[in-house]
Amino acid sequence: MPRYALKIEYHGAPFSGWQRQNDRPSVQGAIETALAQLEPGAHNIAAAGRTDAGVHGLAQVAHCDLQRDWAPFRLSEALNFHLHKVPVAIVDCARAPSDWHARFGARERRYVYRILMRRAPATHLKGLVWQVKHPLDVDAMQAGAKHLLGKHDFTTFRSTICQAESPIKTLERLDVTRIEGTHGPEIQFDVRARSFLHNQVRSFVGTLERVGSGSWTPDHIKDALAARTRSACGTVAPSMGLYLAGVSYPENPFDAADTALASRPMPQ
After folding, report:
1. Which of 45, 138, 181, 265 sits at 20 to 30 Å (Cα–Cα) from 101?
2. pLDDT at res. 267
3. CB atoms < 10 A from the CB of 266, how many?
4. Active site residue 175
5. What is the SS3 assignment for 31-44?
6. How far apart are CA 87 and CA 15, in angstroms?
């Protein structure tokens, strides 16, 4: 059976998360329903990460196995045709080796979180950012973030329902940057690691927001990490500001010549 890698963009607001659920809409369920329109029968796609309800995808990666040998461009076009009623799009598609796995083969996952700082209600960015009405000190937040880099026991920043076997993870990057956006100043977080615990990124952001607002000092982050208890964590940031922004692999299937982007006809 040919295996295909899919790069997926989605707006998380209408969904109860990535993972298929029997009685609620999910991104996985929407794509599997579209696949069933192309090849009747049950489909079970695997993704690099299971995003929560309301979390967005800029470059989620998944794989599927099909009976037919599809040209990547034709497969992406056909899927997008059947996905047009939901905010999900296949932005690239590629043939992948039969043993390639979107989840287990991932080397790094990148998340971006956006905080909009302005008093006026968000209009164009509603549902896409966490809006706070007070200024945040980005330098203090970055100072606090440095305590989280490296290999640690992240029990403090782990959901109580997290199913990971161990709370020990290695955080490769946590950059905090102020952006002068069109709709107002934003604080953006660039967070990277091989894998994450449930709610880990949102727990980081909510706790660092306390530092930015002056409620905590940067060293409070160090103390919270060392406490290894969920009660030491700050507020968990809301899901609407979080994006799965990229997944990297030792051999990226989308770099191959035969992909939807590469084979797409150029406009005349």
Report:
1. 265
2. 57
3. 4
4. no
5. HHHHHHHHCCCCCC
6. 10
